[in-house]
Amino acid sequence: MPPSRRTHRAPEASGERIVDPPLRPGPAGASSIGALVDNNRLLRAAFDTRIGDLRFWELAAATRREVLTVATEYTGSYRHARRPDDVADWISRPIIMGGHQPELFHAGVWLKNASLDAYARAVGGTAVNLVVDIDRCVGATVAVPVGTPREARLEHVPFDAGGPEVAWEERAVLDRDCFTTFGARAADLLAPLSPDAIVRRWWPLAVERAAESHRLGLALAQARHLLEERFGLETLELPVSELLRLPTVMVFTGWLLAHARALHEAYNDALAAHRRQHRVRGRGRPMPDLAVRRDASGEWLEVPWWLWSRDDPRRRRVFASVATPGALALSDLETLRIELPIAPDTSPSKWVDALSRLEEHQLRLRPRALVTTLIARVLVADVFVHGVGGAAYDHLTDDIVRRLTGCDPPRHAVVSGTLRLPIDEVHPGFASADPAARLAAVQRELRDLEFHPERHLGAMDGLPPTVHELVTEKRRWIDTFPTPALARRRCREIRAANERMAFHLAGRRQDLLARVGPLAAAIRARKVLDSRDHPWCFFPETTLRRFLLLETRGDSSYPSAH
Predict the structure, then answer these.
(1) pTM of the predicted model over 0.85
(2) Which H or E run includes 276?
(3) Within this chain, do residues 399 and 483 fall inside the same structural domain, yes or no?
(4) Same domain assignment for residues 445 and 504
(5) What is the pLDDT of residue 53?
(6) Are residue 504 and residue 443 in the same domain, yes or no?
(7) Which of 83, 88, 160, 518 has the smallest number of CB atoms closer than 10 Å to its CB?
(8) Rounded (10°) CA dihedral 360, 362, 368, 371
């Protein structure tokens, strides 16, 4: 039976973190990263699936060798990457893996990278971060908070020219001047709120890497990775597009495609089970079912990949036909159609040759999110580290693996955190101010002025005769029993008395109304500034170091940041 699913929510308070499992066992033998590694190795050893002539564990061992070798070569192309002399021992040690798109993500996402390093150190293994460059680059602007704490707003600042929504691996820098000046422009706008934002000093690294890599996403990822090196993190990185080109990964990809119908059914069945369990009615939630199409050539089953070409880099859905014995036809049902010698009874070497030829012909076959994590978790990582969002849906991956193989997949870890801009350091009192509470108090008083004005007129013996009479008249009507004959008149008379008394409180009412607008603006500004989604590079370096390193670096073997 699968274990009960853990649920996590992003921490609320700034500086709080989720690290599950922890680095070290807690009281009463609680779980730790070491225990999770041991458990996951047992789960992987239980896989009895054969892929061609290889048992699953043999393919996994070969993949781990390739991943570590290529990740070291890739990382070493722009920063120091140490390759141990004893390669066999290196490969046998745990691999802790995570991944994210190469965007300007928030500090809670960046905490995963620090945790990869800490987890790997705790178990004597290697940390590998996947740069998910196969996802779409949906824009090249960043929302920058500008203004003052009482009137802050978001201004969308471009770091490159706009372009078509293509995969990060295809996205070049389109406007060199815009890209080069972004760090200074963003830092100038941030200065009133975060004057020491690291973006000003860090961005030249991104400019340098863009000139070398010629890719927008790789420039951002490599520049961030260089900063991590300065912080003392010893991780390897590898773009997912490069991972998918490894021969062993192509073998596994070929095996999945060779079982296209079983994968299609497992995917949809897992979604159906999720919707039943969580009582989700929408057929598109959490993601749409894989579709079935029919044309003159027969039935086409949608499979969880994307397909595009260098000439037309729009990501298209992929449909598979298994009508031809010994072959698999893939098509976007628009313009692209390819036939590959991929089937359960064909040789894995033919799968690799066919998928390699796709790359040579500038065709890109890239897995969707669930299949990407399936490959990483089942084939490579001893522990895969998710954020809260990825963990929320990766039980679908678990279900798909069980339906395809009959085995439980390795478990994942969850790391996330919340970091809010340290506005109080620049504007003391911001953290303790509560404009929402003050606005609520103003609104309560306005309501009290409307329905109980007599409470605000002062002592009865000091009231003018006309006002005194209004208060007395209202009390008389309140004390009158609301018989059917008098109920409507009683209500009208009380309301009229309130309106006449309100005339004498018009100044107070105007003062309160004048406070509503500024307080509402302050609430909107606080919502902007309290967001946990601001990019990590908008924070001061000292704040980032504390958030990333203090708790996760509890081992004395960690080098000090430099």
Answers:
(1) yes
(2) helix 260-278
(3) no
(4) yes
(5) 87
(6) yes
(7) 88
(8) 0
